[in-house]
Amino acid sequence: MDVVTSLTADKPVVIFSKSTCFMSHTVKALICSFGASPSVIELDKMQSGHQVERALIQLGCKPSVPAVFIGQQFIGGADEVIKLNVQNKLAQLLLGAKAIFIWSR
């Protein structure tokens, strides 16, 4: 878990992803549509990806990707992020984490 904490430290938005996962792509596109620039960590392209994936599973990420952290807090996977967006809560989380600075709907 320390590896996940170190990878999410001091970053407003971190998305753990796999380059072949279409839901990861969808979540990245959704968060970017707000004007945020998330740090994307592609587990299948990093040497210690399996170790990070195990740590994500221990945190409760099932499936392991996408796993979204906003303001160093685990938000969840695609279902949770999309639900927050539908409830008009995602923008507020991004604002609070200083991932975006202005948002009006």
Key phrases:
single chain, 105 residues, 16% strand
Secondary structure layout plus pairing:
Blueprint: H1 2-8, E1 13-17, H2 22-32, E2 39-42, H3 49-59, E3 67-70, E4 73-76, H4 78-86, H5 90-96
Parallel strand pairs: 1-2
Antiparallel strand pairs: 1-3, 3-4
Protein name: Glutaredoxin domain-containing protein
Family: Belongs to the glutaredoxin family. CC-type subfamily.
Pfam families: Glutaredoxin (PF00462)
Q: Residue-averaged pLDDT, rounded?
A: 93
Categorize the overall geometry.
Answer: globular
What is the CATH third-level topology name? Glutaredoxin
Helix and strand element order: HEHEHEEHH
Report strand order across the widest sheet: 2-1-3-4
* Strand segment count: 4
Q: CATH class, please?
A: Alpha Beta
Quaternary structure state of the chains depicted: single chain
Structural class given helices, strands, pairing?
alpha+beta
Q: What fraction of residues sit in β-strands?
A: 15-25%
**Which residue ranges are poorly predicted, with pLDDT under 50 across at least 5 consecutive positions?**
none
CA radius of gyration is 13 Å
Helix content: 40-55%
Main location: cytoplasm
Domain Glutaredoxin: 13-75
InterPro entries: GlrX-like_pln_2, Glutaredoxin, Glutaredoxin_subgr, Thioredoxin-like_sf
Protein name: Glutaredoxin domain-containing protein
Structural notes for this entry:
The protein has 105 residues and is of the alpha+beta class. The protein has a single domain (1-95), classed as Glutaredoxin (3-Layer(aba) Sandwich), CATH 3.40.30. It is 43% helix and 16% strand. The protein contains 5 helices and 4 strands. It has helices spanning 2-8, 22-32, 49-59, 78-86, 90-96; strands at 13-17, 39-42, 67-70, 73-76. A 4-stranded mixed β-sheet has the order 2-1-3-4. Helix 2 (22-32) links the parallel strand 1 (13-17) and strand 2. The protein starts with a helix and ends in a 9-residue tail after the last helix. The model has no long low-confidence stretch (mean pLDDT 93). It comes from Glycine max. Belongs to the glutaredoxin family. CC-type subfamily. Keywords: Cytoplasm, Redox-active center. It holds the Pfam family Glutaredoxin.
